[in-house]
User: What shape does this take?
Amino acid sequence: MTGAILVTTLAALCAAGIFAAVLMAQRPEEGWGTWLRDTVRAWRREDFTWADEVDEEDAGGLGTLYLMSEPGNAYTTAEELAERLRDIREHAPALPDRGEGRPTEARA
Assistant: This one.
């Protein structure tokens, strides 16, 4: 039981140490206290409201997402991949032989 408590305490200390290191690396110039006060003040000044319904034209919607997408199919078959690799091998310059692995096109 003592071992489990020690391991848990050690894990918590390690997590706290990593968290502190990240906070120190990302520390704003004015300090965390000033940053937090300014952030809370800015948040309180804004008039945030919840909208139950959003106009799809203003938000973009699926039509905008579709227009931003690239044409074509996202899936590649094994045959298409093999054909593409074959094209690359045919059009790529021969690699110099380093004496390791398979022989290159120049040696064969």
User: Anything to note?
Assistant: The chain is about 60% helix and 0% strand. Residues 60 and 66 are 10 Å apart (CA to CA). The mean pLDDT is 79.
